[in-house]
Design a protein that fits this description.
It is built from 9 helices and 24 strands. A hairpin with a 2-residue loop joins strand 4 and strand 5. The protein has one domain. It starts with 5 loop residues before the first helix and ends with a helix. The chain is α/β, with parallel strands linked by helices and about 475 residues long. Helix 4 packs across helix 6. Strands 3, 6, 7, 9, 10, 12, 13, 15, 17, 19, 21 and 23 form a 12-stranded mixed sheet that branches. A 10-stranded mixed sheet has the order 5-4-8-11-14-16-18-20-22-24, with helices on one face.
């Protein structure tokens, strides 16, 4: 795609007008045609905020042009995010506190491209009857009684519920530039809607995301989006799996997915998330969860791929007696690999419960970041909230930045948090294994593996758990070889 027109760039640089054309109801960044149309649109939108910078504008224009015709149900979300991008600057470690420890300059190191069509490969085999496949951000297949593409949902209650959820997403206050990029660039939405009282606990929905690089020296960007709605008393298990395909397991690309989950009263969602992407790929992900009264949300993450991995996990409890369980494992071992978890849990109602476990191994020149925020507001009395992070540094060049944050406004609560960073395992544990005939190196290797397996073993589906453990074990062995 060509660069923005001179008239458009001049209007943005002057900060006196905004290159917008409002084509109801979706905001347009640019209009093809004579420059006069661009100038007229800029004048018409003079009251709007100035464009952030050329890079954000170019990416937004590329995304808008690539989407083409899409479901009108996405229009409110797309329009709100387009407007937001006009006043959002590219985040840097100096200008944005949320990226203080996260170097995302890798995203600017290569030109951004967008897939013209999904890679012509058959959908990966899934051991589960209900499954969804995204190829380079394009929804290519879906199967299951309660699984569908947004565009294929007929008029009725399910369509109305999805429309209401997406319209509400437009008001999400904690979003960032990557959330907005996804909203503007999502071609379709995979919708998992579980009706009231229906249980899919034994029939998980397997959502597969495959990515491929275009091989022309650019970073191909994709923006898949998923909406999960578990109605009152419903139960559903979600397996979310991200991986590269093709040469070198997908090569260079930028995956920018968003998953939104609504857990209604007395409903339960079990969410397993595995990220095993190419080590020259970038992965910026949002997971947004809303929990209502007496609902349960259980989340297990294993991220062991990508050169740049940033996960924003945002959960809000919207009713009393709500339970949230979060377990995350990151393994950062490749050259300058970055793994970053930014989580935010908001408790607003009485007798809420939450427990968060974060574990990270960094070796070589790997970099790990954990910024965990739990906010217990005034009316969240009798809350029981716990947070624990443990990190292992297996190399003198590895780096970890940990920032646990527990903000308590209520006065009748039970809240704990702890953080530990170590360069080696407890000598007592090593001695325990040596006393049983195991040499010190093998004992250390076993303890390193067990450190990550503690979280991976919580994936409740054996085929996914075994595959993830096998991949982690191979990467751990490879990192040991590189240290020699």
């Amino acid at each position: 795609m060509s660069s923005p027109s001179p008239a458009l760039c001049a209007a943005a640089a002057a900060s006196c007008s905004t290159p917008l054309r409002v084509a109801s109801p979706v905001v347009r960044f640019r209009r093809s045609g004579a420059p006069a149309s661009v100038v007229s649109a800029a004048r018409a939108a003079a009251a709007a905020p100035a464009v952030s910078d050329d890079l954000v504008l170019r990416i937004a224009e590329q995304l808008e042009d690539s989407v083409g015709a899409s479901s009108p149900l996405l229009d409110p979300l797309r329009s709100a995010s387009a407007l937001s991008l006009l006043s959002t600057r590219w985040p840097t470690r100096r200008s944005n506190e949320a990226y203080r420890f996260t170097d995302i300059s890798y995203l600017r190191s290569l030109p951004i491209s967008l897939p013209s069509q999904p890679l012509a490969v058959a959908p990966p085999a899934s051991p589960y009857a209900s499954h969804v496949h995204f190829s380079d951000g394009v929804l290519t297949s879906s199967s299951g009684a309660h699984v569908s593409a947004l565009a294929d949902i007929p008029p009725g209650r399910v369509r109305d519920r999805a429309a209401a959820a997406l319209a509400a997403s437009a008001e999400f206050a904690d979003k960032d530039i990557f959330y907005d990029f996804n909203a503007v660039g999502a071609k379709d939405v995979a919708v998992v809607h579980v009706p009231e009282g229906v249980s899919m606990a034994d029939d998980p929905v397997h959502i597969m995301f495959s990515y491929s690089g275009c091989g022309d020296g650019s970073m191909m960007m994709s923006n898949p989006r998923v909406l999960v709605v578990a109605e009152k008393g419903a139960e559903v298990a979600i397996i979310e799996e991200h991986f590269g395909v093709g040469q070198e397991d997908g090569g260079c690309y930028w995956a920018n997915p968003v998953m939104e989950i609504i857990v209604e009263e007395n409903a339960k969602v079990v969410h397993s998330y595995v990220q095993q992407q190419s080590f020259v790929a970038a992965h910026t992900k949002w997971t947004v969860v809303q929990q209502n009264t007496s609902s349960n949300y259980e989340f297990v993450e294993a991220s062991i791929g990508a050169r740049l991995n940033r996960h924003n996990l945002h959960i809000q409890q919207l009713g009393p007696e709500t339970n949230t369980q979060l377990s995350t494992f990151h393994f950062s071992a490749q050259n300058k690999q970055i793994h970053d978890l930014h989580s935010k849990l908001i408790l607003d109602h009485p007798r809420g419960r939450s427990h968060q476990i974060h574990r990270l191994i960094a070796s070589g020149t790997g970099n790990g970041i954990f910024d965990g925020n739990i906010k217990v507001n005034r009316y969240a009395q009798q809350t029981d909230a716990g947070q624990e992070t443990k990190c292992l540094l297996l190399s003198s060049k590895a780096l970890v930045n940990v920032k646990p944050n527990l903000q308590i406004i209520a006065d009748d609560v039970k809240c704990t948090h702890g953080a530990a960073i170590s360069g080696e395992h407890d000598p007592n544990a090593i001695y325990f294994l040596q006393a049983r005939g195991i040499d010190a190196k093998t004992a250390a290797d076993a303890l390193n593996f067990a450190f990550g397996a503690h979280v991976i073993n919580q994936i409740p589906f054996k085929p996914i758990e075994k595959k993830t453990l096998s991949h982690f074990k191979a990467l751990l062995a490879s990192s040991r070889q590189n240290e020699k």
